[in-house]
Amino acid sequence: MAGLNLTARPIHELAAALAAGEFSATALVEGYLARVKEKDGEIRAFLKLDADRVLAEAARSDARRREGRPLSEFDGIPIGIKDCIVTAGESCSCASKILAPVCSPYDSTAVARLKEKGFIPFGRLNMDEFAMGSSCENSAFQKTANPHGTTRVPGGSSGGSAACVAASFAAAALGSDTGGSIRQPAAFCGVVGLKPTYGRVSRHGLVAFASSLDQIGPMTHDVLDAAILLDTIAGPDRMDSTCLPVAAGGFADAVRSGSGSLRGVRIGLPKEYFSGSGLSSGVEKVLRHSIEKVRALGAELVDVSLPHTRYAVAVYYIIATAEASANLARFDGIRYGARVEGRDLVDTYFRTRGAGFGAEVKRRILLGTYVLSSGYYDAYYLRAQKVRTLIRRDFEEAFRSCDVMLTPVTPTVAFKFGEKSDPLQMYLSDIFTIALNLSGNCGISVPAGQDGETGMPVGVQFMAPALDEARLLCVSNAFFLNR
User: What is the mean pLDDT of the chain?
Assistant: First the structure.
């Protein structure tokens, strides 16, 4: 439908319009497909989008509504899917040549739960290869651009998901967050990105990068939409032994019933995230304004400390690479995926992985193999795990003094393509997000303003204790609606 305005329209608004008969699911999907056709040649958010498939799903949704049996109020709403979350019958390459020919025979639990509510999986979204990166420049196939400035990166690794939402190519998207890969691109692209508590959402069907850190989460236009999608995808799952056996739901109701006031809420400001943290002047200005905003909404500001934060990046790049080294060993070209024949089995392994993995993936596999090797395991991996425990205890202690914490998401706004060629510079892009994954707690990036010099979006991060997403969402929604 050519006249359908889909710019930044949230899920809850689209659901109401569908229920009122303002347009059909088919018209909605056609509208998004038209936007993708018009604009994605410049943004490059999608690796693959099967128009016939999504239109067929929309037609089935319309039939259910005509018969008075929609699967939910959200039946027929398209949701983009990051290319490391499997969908039955669709490719799942993780933006890597080694998995380019792979087609998934099953749905991830998150996608299956979306389908149960009638949401339509809408294409495969670009990412840093195997979720290893902070800019979406490490994809084997294309570089996704930031819709707010196409010479700049969208962030990573869920850059395609963030760009998809920011460009209004779909109502929302799923991403994954191992060290900030939902929150950082959400901040860069001016959308909402939620990293749930580790174990809150099943990882079944999420191609593993670092199994003790990975978590699927939503990227949306507003906080209520994040709560709606968390209601949909969260909850116990027998297919994932790390998925917590706790009931989930009621997040959207909690957000809707929120007063909009922060009176009585204690918001912690961890000093390590503010002093000597390398914040750009534009990001710092928006952050200070955000602090004054939550104060004006009635929050009590509390100074807290996370003293082991300075070790978080080092600890992360030991633990995450070690787990990646083990997880990616399964991609050998023997059972599935790309294969390059060699003189013998070992040579086939070498040739397949040499051709199939990109430079950043190889770098992290080598780092992980090194820290797990004989003579180095105790010095690096075991010590990193001990410091991870100290980081988690820091959060536990800080949350005794506050209900949530408010911090920056990124030191700068989205940078230009090629600006950070040094790997260490790139790794420091996640300096404010990594510790949350190491601790297993939940966090969200919320749009907070713009950098005065570049005009690029700036986000702020709220963090809450494990399984306290309801409070996290209510606090961040009060800020979002009054920012």
Answer: 96
Please give the distance of CA 186 from its chain centroid, rounded to a whole number.
8
In the residue annotation, 157 being an active-site residue is answered as yes
- Residue of 157, 168, 439, 445 marked active site: 157
**Among 61, 82, 91, 439, which one carries the catalytic annotation?**
82
**Would the pLDDT of 356 be above 70?**
yes
- pLDDT 10s digits, 116-140: 999 999 999 999 999 999 999 999 9
Q: What's the whole-model pTM score?
A: 0.97
* pLDDT at 60 > cutoff 60: yes
Does 181 qualify as catalytic in the annotation?
A: yes
Q: Which domains does the chain have, with CATH numbers?
A: 11-244 (3.90.1300.10)
In a 13 Å sphere around the CA of 72, the CA atoms on its Cβ side amount to 17
Other CB atoms within 10 A of residue 347 CB: 12
439 φ/ψ sector (left φ>0, alpha ψ -120 to 50, else beta) = alpha
State the first-to-last Cα distance of the chain, in angstroms, to the nearest integer.
33
386 labelled catalytic: no
Which residue is catalytic, options 134, 181, 290, 439? 181
